[in-house]
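Narrative summary of target 7.
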Amino acid sequence: MRCSMKSTLIYNDIEIVDLALKIKDHLVLGDLQIGFEEMLNKKGILIPRQRIESVIERIDAILKNVRVKTIVFNGDLKHEFGIISRQEWRDITRLLEHLVLKGYELIIVKGNHDVVLGPIVKKLNLKIVDYYTVGNITILHGDKIIPDLADVIIIGHEHPAISFHERKDERYKCFLVGTWHKKKLIVMPSFNTVTVGSDISKENVLSPFLKQSLKNFDVYIVEDKVYKFGKVKDIVKESS
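Modeled conformation, tokenized:
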């Protein structure tokens, strides 16, 4: 379901817009994982492919509603680990060229799936960075911890989603807002719409930033609009 483009302020200058975050004149997108469906199809799992046209359309819809100069891809722009699949090469090139032609500065933060992303971004004269800083905010993928982090940390990698007692078979993409070592920590959902993500109330977490308890993290679910559902511990309690 496409979310309303009305922004929701979650912390200082940080706003949720659909599945993205707006930070001043920056837009942050996480975990597009282009090529995920092609990988599953090769394994005999037949699922519809996320057409790059629909991804571009969704991003364009966000950009029509916010004023930004820079777009940050926060890791896992692609899915395959050791190769660049034909879908990845074709679709990632199409997406990045589209945004460059619109005049946006593109920052690509390296994720754990982006091992061989280099040839694609080099073709477009772009660079891959390990992290990116905006004021007092560090944006990094979240698969590993780095030193000298700012007061606010934004990560992806986890693909957070959550379910409820009355709808145990349904999961909903969500943002998580909490703390890590006295720093504000914001966890972004995946921008890939083929899969919802991992139910953070039931599954083991992936990111080392989330090895602590998630019970006091606030949950913002993204559906037709952004819904604040309170803390993880309250949702888990109601679902048990």
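The first strand starts at residue 8 and ends at 11.
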